[in-house]
Specification:
Shape: globular
Distance between the termini: 66 Å
Helix content: 25-40%
Order of helices and strands: HEHEHEHHHEEHHHHEHEEHEEH
Number of helices: 13
Radius of gyration: 22 Å
């Protein structure tokens, strides 16, 4: 080819518009079913005050919502996610674009806590407006067996499993790694923070981190929730917390879960009921859309069960955003082969704070995850392999 002609071809290629990313749902595969496990939306701290007296310079700002319950702002944020998912599910052929889905198309369960029930109700009302979709949940939160099956946990074995995950140097090393985050937290709360931490066995329950790491997790979450609720910045962390500061102190949250919920023995037992429900929903001939509304600990246990890791929007690695979800899609390719692919979905902090409508131009964070044991292609975890992997992990002996 003459040099001038070759140059012309190269210039034409370089100046051509880039191929647009496919719209949600427009892929080379057919999505047959989807299962999502979602954390509840924005809430106040689960108790007032969030931390004991003397651990902050000033009292924690008040909330108009009862402790631990879903706020009106939180419900609106959940509705933004549901509106986006309605569009996505319609494009994937899982739900109709308008009107109500046929009976049996959607199945939904929630934890027995008020915030989870209200989150599920807000999501379903927007996903299927004017339609009757039943949200199943236990009548008594204390009688939970799907979202909080802690009776299956041996406290001493759970502690041993957590200790096995610690780096050389134990919790002291973990605390040292968070030294800069403790300094940020101390500046926000306005008083010295005792960083000493310990890991305790709880009979019939997960192990429990006490001390500085626990305080950091609770305080960091409370300051985050103030920001997400849309409180004025003069009230968020007493006016001493920037968004970057919040992201720093949020690292205590996944650190706590890493040793309390994600160790294999604990994750196996805590996640087992929901894992069975997820696999049944993907493998059977039931609903096209299965929705589970629970808590951050449920998602952390699910991540520990499959050894999956994620980054939700602008949150730290393995953290779980309010309204954030871990999901699984069952897909079929052109050759008829069926695969499972896992994904995370969450609003960014500012999308939730500002209640930004979610569209193709301004979507939530959504990305596919690697499922260890299924191969390197995150889009191609063979269904039979996924089922075998799940069965093996459910049946493995106690650590």
């Amino acid at each position: 080819m003459p040099r001038l002609r070759l140059l012309g071809v190269l210039l034409a290629v370089l100046s051509a518009p880039a191929l647009a990313a496919p719209a949600p749902g427009k892929t080379e595969v057919t999505v047959e079913r989807v299962v999502m496990l979602m954390r509840h939306g924005v809430r106040p701290s689960t108790k007032f005050p969030a931390t004991p007296a003397g651990t902050t310079k000033e009292a924690w700002p008040g909330w108009s919502t009862p402790a631990g319950d879903l706020t009106a702002h939180g419900a609106e944020g959940v509705k933004r996610l549901a509106a986006y998912d309605r569009m996505l599910f319609a494009e994937q052929g899982l739900l109709p674009a308008t009107g109500c889905a046929a009976p049996g198309t959607i199945a939904a369960w929630s934890s027995g806590s008020s915030r989870a029930i209200k989150t599920g109700s807000a999501f379903l009302e927007t996903l299927q407006p004017g339609c009757k979709v039943v949200l199943d949940h236990p009548a008594d939160e204390d009688a939970e067996d799907q979202f909080h099956p802690t009776s299956a946990v041996d406290g001493d074995r759970a502690l041993a499993a957590a200790q096995a995950q610690l780096p050389p140097g134990g919790l002291e090393h973990v605390v040292a790694e968070r030294r800069a985050d403790f300094a940020t937290l101390e500046r926000i709360v306005g008083v010295p923070v005792d960083t000493a931490s310990s890991l305790k066995a709880i009979p019939g329950d997960n192990p429990d981190i006490k001390g500085g790491l626990s305080f950091g997790s609770t305080a960091g979450q409370t300051i985050l929730l103030q920001y997400l609720e849309g409180m004025p910045m003069r009230e968020v962390g007493w006016g001493r917390a920037s968004k970057a500061d919040i992201q720093a102190v949020l690292r205590f949250h996944p650190t706590k879960f890493q040793y309390e919920v994600r160790p294999p023995y604990v994750a196996q037992r805590v996640a087992a009921p929901l894992v069975r429900r997820i696999v049944d929903a993907l493998s059977g001939d039931g609903p096209r859309v299965t929705l589970l509304f629970g808590h951050d600990g449920n998602l952390a246990a699910l991540g520990g069960f499959y050894d999956m890791h994620w980054t939700m929007a602008d949150y730290p690695r393995d953290d779980i955003a309010p309204g954030g979800a871990i999901g699984f899609e069952l897909v079929r390719d052109a050759a008829g082969r069926r695969y499972v692919r896992a994904f995370q979905q969450a609003q960014s902090m500012d999308q939730l704070r500002q209640l930004t409508p979610l569209t193709r131009a301004a979507p939530p964070s959504r990305s596919y995850l690697t499922i260890p044991g299924c191969g390197s292609d995150v889009m191609r975890c063979d269904l039979a392999t996924f089922e075998r992997l799940t069965r093996d992990r459910l049946a493995r002996p106690a650590d």
